[in-house]
Write a structure and sequence with these properties.
It is built from 8 helices and 17 strands. By secondary structure, the protein is of the alpha/beta class. The chain folds into 3 domains: 2-127, Beta-grasp domain (Ubiquitin-like (UB roll), Roll); 131-230, Elongation Factor Tu (Ef-tu), domain 3; 241-368, Nucleotide-binding domain of ferredoxin-NADP reductase (FNR) module (Rossmann fold, 3-Layer(aba) Sandwich), CATH 3.40.50. The strands form 3 sheets. The chain has a 6-stranded antiparallel beta sheet with strand order 9-8-11-6-7-10. It has a 6-stranded parallel beta sheet with strand order 15-14-13-12-16-17, sandwiched between helices. Helix 8 links the parallel strand 16 (339-344) and strand 17. Helix 1 crosses helix 8. The longest helix has 29 residues, at 2-30. The radius of gyration is 21 Å and the shape is globular.
Length: 373
């Protein structure tokens, strides 16, 4: 049942992206808006910029970076801001990502709002601390047939402060038929204690602008730009049993989280980490995770293959990772203790995991994730 959900989500993304592009082209050709003012948080900051560009990009021009997992295509719904002045009704490209309460409060997608006149907005104060970093690619290595580990040394600014589990936006330059720099969101797999580097796990997505660049063109020694940190995905300091579920490059935030917990001596907490893959060639970091298990008695790593091949000689768990999660919740995990969910993966996987966790009385407000499109 996961495939129809994923296809529906993808279809919405494609349609809204095409609508956004059509609106943008028409607007640029017909109109010239001159200089406009962006009033932020009732005068706390003001930006005076040339009108006509999307609010998302205009804010970035002024040094204020709003999260956008899709790079401003209107297909992720991440770049929400509250608009307190009149900018007209919600566009069809915004509505799929808005709740009734958000519509009533005039929350908007900043990538879909064109600066046609002065505008007033409200944003979280934390966004004032988001920075854009230039860095040098120190190392690229294949961890699977379709996932690359990219290790970037920060050049300016030289240090990043983030919580394990957060993400950055990686920008790549124009190439082939891609005429503009393009950004996409990737969770950091590096440890917060390593403030001079950002490590990312980038899975090749067919047709993906940034992933294609990373897998076919990016070279060690080249200069790149990252922006962040973003996201609310981080460990809550409650002591509850952590139910962690990931697949593919969803490994990234958990690598950061687990090593951060080891470094900080938080190994008294029970952690169950479920990682799903199709075949054995899609698994990675197995030796590192086994080493963590030897250091951390209450840490349990369970890998599962949904389509094991004969040559895999796999003796571990099989089936969808949600099925394995349910099996362990039924037979091995102590459900008398409070539990929290931590998830990183496709929208379909997230929805399925949330359903299983709710079935076993994990409160919905205790299930944490960043849902990338």
């Amino acid at each position: 049942m996961l495939i129809p959900v994923f296809l529906a989500s993808s279809a919405v993304g494609v349609i809204t992206a095409l609508l956004a592009l059509l609106i943008s082209i028409t607007d640029r050709v017909v109109n010239n808006y001159g200089e406009v003012t962006i009033d932020i948080n009732q005068g706390k900051r003001q930006l005076k910029l040339k009108g006509g560009a999307p609010l998302l990009f205009s804010l970035a021009e002024g040094g204020i970076y709003v999260a956008s997992a899709c790079g401003g295509r209107g297909s992720c719904g991440a770049c929400k801001v509250k608009v307190t002045s009149d900018v007209g009704p919600h566009l069809p490209t915004e509505l799929p990502y808005m709740s009734k309460d958000e519509i009533a409060e005039n929350v908007r997608l900043s990538c879909q709002i064109k600066l046609k006149k002065d505008i007033a907005i409200q944003i979280p104060e934390a966004l004032f601390n988001i920075k854009r970093y230039r860095g040098t690619v120190e190392r690229i290595r294949n961890v699977t047939h379709d996932i690359k580990e990219v290790y970037i040394r920060l050049d300016e600014p030289k240090e990043i402060n983030f919580l394990a589990g957060q993400y950055v936006q990686l920008m790549v330059p124009p190439y082939d038929k891609i005429k503009e720099p393009t950004e996409r969101a990737y969770s950091m797999s590096s440890r917060p204690s390593d403030r001079n580097h950002v490590e990312l796990l980038v899975r090749l997505v067919p047709g993906g602008i940034v992933t294609t660049y990373v897998h076919t063109r990016m070279k060690e020694g080249e200069t790149v730009t990252v922006t962040g940190p973003f996201g609310e995905f981080h460990v809550r300091e409650t002591g509850a049993t952590m139910l962690c579920v990931a697949g593919g490059s969803g490994m990234a935030p958990f690598k950061s989280i687990l090593y951060d917990m080891i470094e900080k001596g938080k190994t008294d907490r029970e952690v169950w980490y479920f990682f799903g893959a199709r075949t054995k060639k899609d698994l990675f970091y197995l030796d590192e995770l086994k080493q963590l298990e030897s250091q951390w008695p209450s840490f349990h790593f369970i890998a599962a293959l949904s389509e094991p091949q004969p040559e895999d000689e796999w003796k571990g768990e099989t089936g969808l990772i949600t099925q394995v999660l349910e099996k362990y919740l039924t037979t091995q995990i102590d459900r008398s203790k409070p539990m929290e969910g931590y998830l990183c993966g496709s929208p379909g996987m997230l929805d399925a995991c949330i359903a299983v966790m709710k079935k076993f009385q994990v409160p919905p407000e205790k299930i944490y994730f960043d849902k990338f499109a």
